[in-house]
């Protein structure tokens, strides 16, 4: 997993997140200078004094309002919460949570039904953990050990795998956490308490999310790839990660990912892909310093006449490929030519990087 996709656990500084994949960055205003009253105020006439006092008062009021705004920004931190959508998929939703030193524990608290997330839930989403569940989180040497209260064991069996995925992916967004262990009331679990799903020694993102094994007859001869499809509805789309099993038939992981994007999520999944089914690479992917360069045929275009690339095609491509180790940005060419444009009119003159946070409500 690329480190540039994680959030610092210790500092938990409030970052302003870019809403487009092609423009991640930090934003901040200039620091306001201290305004001192005129030193010669006692020599001014009364009318002039009143004007000075009004001016100083107005600037002080503006400064106070600005400081209040800056303080509000600094007291929250964007955090990915992996919730369950109406189709049963585990999907990240980025929300501004109160800044705290215990950001890992807080993130899990916001996964609890009827907890603090209740007023923030997007339409058609629900929390993951049973109501009244409490927990402690101990992070050491890259592993977060989560000790849940007894209420944890009251979930519905059909949510068991979703809970494992949600807890794992929510916690591993932080720099200090790569692995997760689960305990129940102080006792380490090797399987889940309701349905008995094996846990093993530790949970990682390598275990996948929203697992789809359709078409994989022999699991032992396959490898996992996580691709992003489009969920939700028009005007309210979001990106859903799905881990699929692909045959080990000599196709590298990058090509396998593109093949799965082109193949689409499948009928009856409630998900979409804007990739054309005949999208192909015209040359082997080139990787250098974290950047992968991909040369496509013209089927990558969403509009053949105007030769424009769909924003959703670009977003799902970048999100999917940056899940792979060592890939931090994606450059796209068509028939060997660069200088493409998106359907929104943005120039693709630079490699596209992954945003700090996904599904901010701005896509």
UniProtKB/TrEMBL annotation:
Residues 52-74, 342-363 are annotated as: Disordered. Residues 104-193, 254-343 form the GerMN domain. InterPro entries: GerMN. It comes from the Bacteria. This is GerMN domain-containing protein. It comes from Mesobacillus maritimus.
């Amino acid at each position: 997993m690329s480190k540039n996709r994680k959030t610092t656990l210790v500092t938990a500084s409030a970052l302003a997140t870019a809403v487009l994949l092609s423009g991640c960055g930090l934003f901040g205003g200039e620091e306001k200078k201290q305004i001192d009253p005129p030193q010669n105020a006692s020599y001014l006439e009364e009318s002039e004094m009143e004007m000075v006092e009004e001016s100083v008062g107005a600037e002080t009021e503006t400064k106070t309002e600005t400081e209040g705004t800056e303080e509000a920004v600094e007291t929250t931190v964007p955090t990915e919460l992996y919730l369950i959508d109406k189709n049963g998929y585990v999907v990240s939703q980025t929300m501004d949570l109160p800044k705290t030193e215990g950001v890992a524990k807080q993130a899990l608290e916001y996964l609890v039904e009827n907890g603090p997330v209740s007023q923030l839930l997007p339409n058609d989403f629900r929390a993951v953990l049973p109501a009244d569940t409490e927990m402690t989180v101990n992070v050491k040497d890259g592993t977060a050990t989560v000790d849940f209260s007894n209420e944890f064991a009251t979930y519905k069996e059909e949510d068991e795998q979703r809970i494992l995925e949600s807890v794992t992916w929510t916690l591993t967004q932080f720099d200090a956490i790569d692995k997760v262990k689960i305990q129940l009331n102080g006792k380490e679990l090797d399987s889940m308490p309701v349905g008995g799903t094996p846990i093993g020694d530790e949970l990682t993102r390598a275990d996948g999310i929203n697992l789809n094994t359709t078409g994989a007859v022999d699991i032992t001869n396959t490898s996992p790839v996580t691709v992003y499809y489009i969920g939700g509805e028009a005007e309210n789309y979001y990106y859903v990660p799905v881990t699929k099993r692909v045959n080990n038939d000599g196709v590298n992981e990058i090509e396998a990912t593109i093949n799965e994007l082109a193949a689409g999520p499948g009928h009856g999944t409630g998900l979409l892909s804007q990739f054309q089914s005949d999208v192909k690479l015209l040359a082997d992917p080139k990787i250098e310093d974290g950047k992968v360069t991909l040369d496509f045929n013209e089927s990558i275009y969403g509009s053949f006449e105007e030769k424009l690339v769909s924003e959703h095609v670009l977003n799902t491509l970048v999100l999917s490929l940056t899940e792979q180790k060592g890939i931090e940005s994606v450059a796209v060419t068509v028939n060997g030519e660069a200088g493409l444009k998106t359907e929104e009119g943005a120039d693709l003159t630079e490699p596209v990087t992954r945003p700090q946070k996904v599904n901010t409500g701005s896509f």
